[in-house]
Amino acid sequence: MEVEGKGGEAGTTTTATRRFALPVDAENKSTTFRLFSVAKPHMRAFHLSWFQFFCCFVSTFAAPPLLPIIRENLNLTATDIGNAGIASVSGSVFARIVMGTACDLFGPRLASAALTLSTAPAVYFTAGIKSPIGFIMVRFFAGFSLATFVSTQFWMSSMFSGPVVGSANGIAAGWGNLGGGATQLIMPIVFSLIRRMGATKFTAWRIAFFIPGLFQTLSAFAVLLFGQDLPDGDYWAMHKSGEKEKDDVGKVISNGISNYRGWITALAYGYCFGVELTIDNIIAEYFFDRFHLNLQTAGIIAASFGLANFFARPGGGIFSDLMARRFGMRGRLWAWWIVQTLGGVLCAFLGQIHSLTWSIVVMLIFSVFVQAACGLTFGVVPFISRRSLGVISGMTGAGGNVGAVLTQLIFFKGSTYSRETGITLMGIMSIACSLPICFIYFPQWGGMFCGPSSKKVTEEDYYLAEWSAKEKAKNLHLASQKFAETSVSERGRASTHPQT
Amino acid sequence: MHPFFSSKSIFLLPKFQNSTMTIHTLLFASLLIFSFIHSCRGGNKDRLFTELQNLIEVTTKPMQDGVVLEAGKDMVTVKWKLKSSAKVDADATFKTIQVKLCYAPISQVDRPWRKTHNELLKDKTCPYEIVSKPYDKTPQSLDWTVELDIPTGTYFVRVYGIDGDGHEVAYGQSSDEGRTTNLFSIQAISGGHVSLDIASILFSVFSVVSLLVFFVKEKKKAKLEQRE
């Protein structure tokens, strides 16, 4: 599959002393996306980052499908399980925020591999836990690895140019999130294989955890050995050789957090991705307990929710790019708001359904909408800031987890609400928290309900406003300048905005 | 490799959408078929526990009184027979006898997957079967070793008399109606092994050490490039 954006050039492109297999823009970012290629550095970065993220997702959600066994071995209560679910997604709130800055400073390759390798021990130690506290702790620390999402988005935004960045981000994140679904299939299968080899139930699940742990470790090795931060090279090498100027961390952070759009995307993402994380945690047990299915069957159904990510999230990213082509940024915003709201409606429905068949049907449709909404979110995020791309990505990603923490805390802890009621209430909260999308406004492109500013603000004005005159004098703003040029495509086709 | 999309061919979009649609349709069609088959079985009127008569007398005697039994090691002696107060041929319909291990209320607290429901099909009180055998009028006794996959908890024993259709018609239990007397406790196996703990440590150390090795190599490489 290939997705092409404007400004594509046929054949190879050379810039100074470098040659790339794919056509590139002014920043050496690829303007096309070729799924079946592993060409250095663009497509290789894509495959390495999505696979590493996938492994982290598998590890973080390896426990839920085996909970019917684990809860008996460790004598867990519903409160313990709820707390562990919250713990699994709360660790990476902090980690995602930090990861954004880490990527800005060290590059996505080192930052992500460092995180993945340092959280792998939590997965290995799951094999030895003996109490509810142990369970909560390993899920907490393993969950930090979900911050590799931020490095994935950052890496894709560094490698792929405007017209295809939504697709690249969507597919990479979607195939990573796939891990949350794949694990619901993988873990019960690994468990039954180990049982067949003679282990008791209470030992077999422990051994099973070595599989996700190993995959996590190996994927980090692959990233370190075969990956590259930027089209032009690696961060550290480029820092030292003076090619890449080091930016002021404090300025980068303050520039990011003062941009109100980042906060809105954080909230909205909390109610599409947050919902997805919550469902990953509770859905297998929900089907197991409510419909009296066995472990494998509940796992298959639970898996189909996460597996929809294979198409749904990339579909969201691609849809965002398509809307941008015609309607510019306003199209991206409308598509995002509509899809996410519909996801919330379907979620509310899901809790009200009593039959197994219809639960599965609605869950599948709901999964497509909620995951597409995640893809649509990251069609908008790369344009909010250029200087503080990492911080904004980190905030938004962290917001996703905060949504999951809040939702599980309010609706899925202990036995206050039945699971069905919790799911319905989560859907309603999702609809409410998607409304702020209506308030996102770009002076150069407009918002959902308003056109571009009458003051004729250009892309250059918007992105260069992030730099002071002093910094511009030192030429620190050149990357933003290049980005502003390529982002003109966000005006859409039917534009009354005069070309400058 | 020719492009699926280009800025001019939005009409190719339905082609992509179709393959997404097809796969989704296949996925949930197969699940629909599966669930239809599943829901076709059963569909009887809900049978209730309260409709059953308490006709069987059940006694349990743990190997040692007042001690927590260890799964896989300790034994419980279970005895059951028809109550002397029962009518003469009250057991005429019994074909099979099923002896089950059941959770006491204290082990059901904050654990909705062990909840007691009146509908027999929904009831989760007694998930573990001790034995199931053809009905014998004479008093029965069984020495049962607690199995390895029994979780930690407090338990009693219930016996169901089952007719030829597989439906429960009567029951008896070793505890009172409120399930508070004559309970015994079981401690589960931990499932852990020293070898697993050692493997965890080894793999973890390997991961962290290789990270440090990579970092050092990166720094060296950066220094080298700077010198060039």
Describe it.
Chain B: The chain crosses the membrane at residues 198-216. Chain B: Belongs to the NAR2 family. Chain B: It comes from Camelina sativa (False flax). Chain B: Involved in nitrate transport. Chain A is mainly alpha-helical and 500 residues long. Chain A has helices at residues 42-60, 67-73, 78-106, 108-125, 132-143, 148-159, 162-196, 201-208, 210-226, 235-240, 249-257, 260-270, 273-290, 295-307, 309-352, 356-380, 389-411, 419-434, 459-464, 469-473, 478-486; strands spanning 2-4, 13-15, 18-20, 32-34, 441-442, 446-447. In chain A, the strands form 3 sheets. A two-stranded antiparallel sheet of chain A has the order 1-4. In chain A, helix 7 (162-196) runs antiparallel to helix 8 and helix 13 runs parallel beside helix 17 (389-411). The longest helix of chain A is centred in the middle third of the chain and has 44 residues, at 309-352. Chain A is globular. With 228 residues, chain B is of the alpha+beta class. Chain B has 2 helices and 10 strands. Chain B has helices at residues 13-40, 194-227, and strands at residues 53-54, 56-62, 69-70, 75-82, 96-103, 128-134, 140-145, 153-162, 168-173, 184-187. In chain B, the strands form 2 sheets. In chain B, strands 1, 3, 5, 6, 8, 9 and 10 form a 7-stranded mixed beta sheet that branches. In chain B, strands 2-4-7 form a 3-stranded antiparallel beta sheet, with no helix packed on it. Chains A and B meet through strand 1, helix 2, helix 4, helix 8 and helix 9 of A and helix 1 and helix 2 of B.
Order of helices and strands of chain A: EEEEHHHHHHHHHHHHHHHHHHEEHHH
> How many strand units of chain B?
10
* Mean model confidence by pLDDT of chain B: 82
Distance between the termini of chain A: 35 Å
- Roughly how many Å is the radius of gyration of chain A? 22 Å
Largest interface: A-B, 71 and 60 residues
Number of helices of chain B: 2
The backbone outline of chain A, from C-alpha atoms, is globular
Order of helices and strands of chain B: HEEEEEEEEEEH
- Helix and strand composition category of chain B: alpha+beta
**N-to-C CA distance of chain B:** 40 Å
Low-confidence stretches of chain A: 2-17, 496-500
Function (chain B): Involved in nitrate transport.
Protein name (chain B): High-affinity nitrate transporter
Keywords (chain B): Cell membrane, Membrane, Nitrate assimilation, Transmembrane, Transmembrane helix
Family (chain B): Belongs to the NAR2 family.
